[in-house]
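Ticket reopened. Same input as before:
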Amino acid sequence: MANSEDIFKKIISHAKEYGFVFPSSEIYDGLSAVYDYGQNGVELKNNIKNYWWASMVRMNENIVGLDAAILMHPKTWKASGHVDAFSDPLIDNKDSKKRYRADNLIEEYMGKISAKINKEVVKAARRFGDAFNEETYRTTNERVMGYQSKIDAINTNMVKAIAESDMDGLRQIIIDAEIACPISGSKNWTEVRQFNLMFSTEMGSVSSDSSTIYLRPETAQGIFVNFLNVQKTSRLKVPFGIAQIGKAFRNEIVARQFIFRLKEFEQMEMQYFVKPGEQMKWFEEWKEKRLAWYIGLGLPKEKLRFHAHENLAHYADAAEDIEFDFPMGFREIEGIHSRTDFDLGAHESVSGKKLQYFDSEANENYTPYVVETSMGLDRMVLAVLSHSYTEETLEDGSSRVVMKIPPQLAPIKAAFFPLVKKDGLPEIAREIIDNLKLDFNCLYEEKDTIGKRYRRQDAVGTPFCVTIDHDTLNDQQVTIRERDSMEQKRVPIKELGAIIGKAVDIKSLFV
Ligand code: ATP
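Engineering reply: fixed in the latest deploy. New output:
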């Protein structure tokens, strides 16, 4: 069986070969951690957005949408804390000139020790056979215990150094552990310095009147600064939510892993404004609702889990991530955060403008607390692609790659194949498409054998293929073939809309 790294590589090349994701400006050798979505990727993305938007804005009377600008007044980022504290600790190797995140270097080092422990465990399991008890072995074997206490000590020091912004302390861990640069093998390190993750640019045409502005590193602040505009014009009462889908930018230095960690990405965020004191109730409720959103789509429960933050950000009183089991393991796909009144309070004090809500029932003014759900659209695309990618051996011994994308998200809903390019069959195919194309994304294909056409659509994840043959001329029926079961049925043309609609309509996810 292929290992997860191989599978990940296959998914990346499949995504490119079938028009889902291309490296940005590829003819110039690409731009690190920036990707473009191709003809199928953009459809998949739009379908995910529609499902999210429907579940937030359409399904909830008290949640409305917003589309704030990417560029915002620079004071926004001072108030939010991003100017002062949105940074990664970086270190350069003087010989290879490569730059690393200091905490990542340390984590990788701990990972290597952990791998040694696992090796010992595997060896011992083989030696002791059925009598082997892993927990006892891990807590009594001296060598393993030595490794484990080394990991624990390093981890404690690292967490402390990060919490105290102690860059010298972080560097000292690297020096003491004798961590070497993976490229040059040298231990010749610079100081560790904080590197802000925001992209900045200049506003204004002449340098004298220019001022530094930032590309937003999260969409949330556009919601906070518009909180009263929306509340007053919508007349919504607390609790209510504002939802937004939009681009965010982070100058991630260690940005590998395909579309998991990008410099330009898209977030789907919803800020829920609640009465102070009620935040934990809403936090729990949104956690459950958000998990159900993934499961409702058919992503398996066992590939999803909550992960509580060990160190809460200074403004949060609760924070958990939803993690998905990507090919590289469980990683964050969405954060659910109880952000207290930190953001509204900070904007109020920096702007000098009141951002309070008048609660007419309680007859009092207060700054609402905020529970946010914040997910990465690109990570969701990766979750869907990696979950859907399936290699199958068929009964006749041949094989196929099929993307088992939930039909509601599939880029193309149905492909139409005239059996031959003549005898009026292409015309019938085109007529069927003309009747359906405003309801579903349809594709016309007349090249190659039907078998090859099926394979191409399997690889894209098209749930239905419809073949128009000579019998169609007489009986007005076509053959519809379902992607996963590969079952074929003869159905009247006039029933196609209903059959396809039943399977691909996002409405089916809400009943
Ligand atoms: P990570 O710990 O992985 O860097 P984060 O905790 O900084 O993520 P948040 O600031 O909570 O992420 O952002 C909310 C969501 O936005 C994340 O759950 C993730 O899905 C997405 N996201 C954040 N950074 C990136 C990125 N560089 N590329 C793609 N998606 C991202």
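The mean pLDDT is 94. Residues 91-196 form one domain. Please confirm and we'll close it.
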